[in-house]
Amino acid sequence: MSTTTPTPDVAPDVDAVVIGAGFGGIYMLHKLRNELGLTVKAFEKGGGVGGTWYFNRYPGAKSDTEGFVYRYSFDRDLLQEWDWSTRYLDQPDVLAYLEHVVERFDLGRDITLNTEVTAATFDEDTALWTVRTADGAQLTCRYLVNALGLLARSNMPDIPGRDSFAGRLVHTNAWPEDLDITGKRVGVIGTGSTGTQFIVAAARMAEHLTVFQRSPQYCVPSGNGPVDQAEVARTKENFDEIWHQVRNSVVAFGFEESTVETMSVSEEERRRVFQENWDKGNGFRFMFGTFCDIATNPEANAAAAAFIRSKIAEIVEDPETARKLTPTDLYAKRPLCNEGYYETYNRDDVELVSIRENPIQDITPAGVRTADGVEHELDVLVFATGFDAVDGNYRAMDLRGRGGRHIDEHWEAGPTSYLGVSKAGFPNMFMILGPNGPFTNLPPSIEAQVEWIAALIADAERDGVRTVEPTQEAEDGWTATCEEIANMTLFPQADSWIFGANIPGKRNAVMFYMAGIGAYRGQLAEVADAGYKGFERQEA
Ligand code: FAD
Ligand code: NAP
């Protein structure tokens, strides 16, 4: 259906611009163009579609959500026609899937690749957005949708001597296609989800791997392995129930979260449950499927942490390496999983350097020099140092709403939003995975947001609305809700990207709605059913 109405003021070049062509941007483009009949242009900085899965080509890159729920659910045929053969999806598989979606829905003709949006400004006189790109071009639109990615802006620590390194220095989020680490002396800084995945894969490829670890990690097995086609067929038959469960769950990972409190059972039973889930694999399952309070109750958290620590002691043969690998803090970062992470340190060609105990002094042309004076000679140095998460890509643009106010001025105390999808002072602008969106397996949350934004725009189009935007009061209320929920958990007590603690100088702030996808979808529905409560509309 075409619901396009004449613009109240000046005709824009297109109805809508979508920035980014990952999971979020691809679906938003489909929804606005193919279903609402709007004219839409999408811009993507990368040389291909896929977002995360275009850029993160490092050895070992894969999903840690199981493949059957790391996908879109919006189209029944698409769900049925795309198979998987391993429990988790390797990077090339996710990329191929997203490329397939783009082709299947004929989206490529409206996506301009290799084009970074440098500025987006709202003009109050015309009620239009002007979008400028790095090549100097500009176009106007009524609706602006930012699908910039929440883990998409690389964090590249400024370590002394960084640019003097004579070998290849790369960030995992910009892995060059021509880089093969086989037979090379490789160093890696960072042991988060990315670093641990890379370490397991790189150990098998490199001549020697040196791991520079700042914080040890709680890592559980992923249980990765082949999935036979009979299981794929069974899963496909049950997709209706599976997606119903996912959409109404907490973390949307395709398993039932536990409702049992950790300390309500005997020590023996606790260990049995932890072992059972250790054997099944998956980080979110271990944190949320074993007991219901590991992320909220310090005693429960300590029990889970102690179990993982006992596994490190069992697995790692060298006691000194085991000591360095053993975390002593809370188990309250995004839970990660990997097949054979701790086992990797039993290899002779893998060396662990605790840079907390023996800091990096500088990077030299030959490698990395640590405080003990040792120069670790390397051919390749990998920064697995993560992301300026959530708001990083927003602040990188010259993004200005009403009164020409820059997004940084609005977000001085940390990034905020109404419902994770909209921002006061930024009319007709929407965000996918904006600040204070849900903390879950992300494709189901992306779908919820895209569908909700599209419905709101369809309504505005039908009614010939000039602008629609949330009130500051609604945004403040949502921020307070997110803070209240986050403070009921242990997550704020651990330093990680979830609260911006990984970037020097970044102000710590609550950046997620942590009550789960079911509750989040409920909030979205309630707001829509109440005539978009919290939004102000200016009629044409
Ligand atoms: P992205 O895929 O990040 O896409 C955003 C796009 O916007 C990028 O292509 C970027 O180039 C583009 N862009 C940004 N700014 C501009 C600009 N100014 N101009 C033009 N283009 C711009 N999540 C899970 O739930 N489960 C997982 O298993 C999982 N695994 C992951 C593995 C890795 C290695 C990483 C890094 C992340 C993983 N994630 C996972 C998180 C993942 O980012 C999301 O699941 C999902 O891919 C996000 O999609 P998106 O479209 O929102 O963002
Ligand atoms: P991350 O979790 O932020 O980890 C970054 C690592 O780099 C940490 O070990 C950190 O140490 C270290 N580091 C950062 N700055 C450093 C510095 N200046 N000096 C030394 N070490 C430094 O980033 P990530 O591993 O890329 O993961 C981010 C998120 O992306 C994940 O939580 C997940 O959501 C997603 N992801 C998922 C997968 C998957 O399994 N499917 C894979 C990759 C990414 P500290 O801990 O001490 O800060």
Mean pLDDT comes to 96
Q: What global shape is seen?
A: globular
Kindly provide the radius of gyration, computed on alpha-carbon positions and rounded to a whole number of angstroms: 24 Å
CATH architectural arrangement of the largest domain:
3-Layer(bba) Sandwich
Total of domains: 2
State the fourth-level CATH superfamily of the largest domain. Answer: FAD/NAD(P)-binding domain
Helix content: 25-40%
Q: N- to C-terminal separation? A: 21 Å
InterPro entries: FAD-binding_Monooxygenases, FAD/NAD-bd_sf, FAD/NAD-binding_dom
Organism: Pseudonocardia halophobica
Protein name: Cyclohexanone monooxygenase
GO molecular function, one term: oxidoreductase activity, acting on paired donors, with incorporation or reduction of molecular oxygen, NAD(P)H as one donor, and incorporation of one atom of oxygen
Describe the fold and architecture.
The chain has about 550 residues and is α/β, with parallel strands linked by helices. Helix content is about 30%, strand content about 20%. It has 17 helices and 24 strands. α1 (about 25-35) packs parallel to α15 (about 440-460) and α15 runs parallel beside α17 (about 515-530). Mean pLDDT is about 95; it is low at about 1-5. It binds flavin-adenine dinucleotide and NADP nicotinamide-adenine-dinucleotide phosphate.
